[in-house]
Amino acid sequence: MATPHNQAEKGQIAKTVLMPGDPLRAKYIAENFLTEVQQFNEVRNMYGYTGMYQSREVSVMGSGMGMPSMGIYSYELYTKYDVERIIRIGSAGALSDDIALMDIVAAIGTCTDSNYASQYGLPGTFAPTADFGLLKITDRIAQEKNLSLKVGNIVSSDIFYNEDNSVNDRWKKMNVLAVDMEAAALYMNAARCGKKALCLLTISDHLYRHESLTAMQRQNSFQEMMTLALDTAAACEA
After folding, report:
1. C-alpha span between 94 and 101 (Å, rounded)
2. Which of 113, 139, 158, 205 is catalytic?
3. Residues making up the binding site for a purine D-ribonucleoside
4. pLDDT at position 144, please?
5. Residue 117 — φ and ψ, nearest 5°?
6. Does residue 104 contact residue 200 with C-beta atoms inside 8 Å?
7. Beta carbons within 8 Å of 50's beta carbon, 6+ residues apart
8. What is the pLDDT of residue 96?
9. How many Cβ atoms are within 10 Å of 63's Cβ, its own excluded?
């Protein structure tokens, strides 16, 4: 059943979906890592594909930028297409001095400055967290591959250009590792829908060392994170 944002029919999307922010990264993964690929969405150029990886069915679809966009696409995948697991594979800006460009961060939890949780009318502050089973599988695979996986708290922000220049300093004091713009909405949707989610991030820039990758590097050079997420997806379907 198509939605205003996704032209797929039920059955065209796998139980596990990898979600980069950039739809061109979804296209890159489909073309370079999957076989028997079928495109299921191109509405608003938010490309989605289903194919085979290690004899397991896996889908990959862009989420767009920011929590409103992630909120729409992940909610529809969970509730309209019977998706069980979403693994966000995105980029992030590092806050921690112990993290370098191209390091992979797994978000065990995510702080946020967003008002996304207000819709639930909760009597306190909700703590968006990853699914422990997905995180445990990913950590095991990372150790088998001798990858250095940094696991900790991140912050998902609604604001890219912030008027308050002190916000990063304050998050850093709380040992927050990095900044993204989507994970909190994904984790909240997963919690509300009774589904599973994990956010993996490759560090594309360091907010204190003024180092950054190019747009083309962000699109095409996150292979370690991509294969780690694909291996996790395949393990979940085993």
Report:
1. 8
2. 205
3. 5, 180-182, 204-205
4. 97
5. -75, -10
6. yes
7. 12, 13, 14, 37, 38, 40, 57, 58, 59
8. 98
9. 29
90: left (phi over 0), alpha (psi -120 to 50) or beta: beta
Q: Tell me how far apart the alpha carbons of residues 4 and 78 are, in angstroms, rounded to a whole number.
A: 15
Q: pLDDT tens digits for 111-130?
A: 999 999 999 999 999 999 99
Cβ-based neighbours of 23, under 8 Å, separated by 6 or more? 45, 46, 47, 61, 62, 64
Which pLDDT score is estimated for 220? 61
Which among 147, 141, 150, 151 has a CA at the least distance from the CA of 234?
141
**Token pair for residue 127?**
């703590």
Per the annotation, the verdict on 205 as an active-site residue is yes
Question: Bridge-partner residues for 196, per DSSP?
Answer: 85
Binding-site positions for phosphate read: 21, 25, 44, 88-91
Write out the two tokens for 93.
């800006």
**Domains of the chain from N-terminus onward:** 16-237 (3.40.50.1580)
CA distance 148 to 161: 30
∠ CA 109-112-114, nearest 5°, is 140
Find the length of the chain: 238
Q: DSSP secondary-structure letter at 129? A: B
Alpha helices for 34-166 (secondary structure H): 67-80, 132-144
Query: Would you say the pTM of this structure is higher than 0.90?
Result: yes
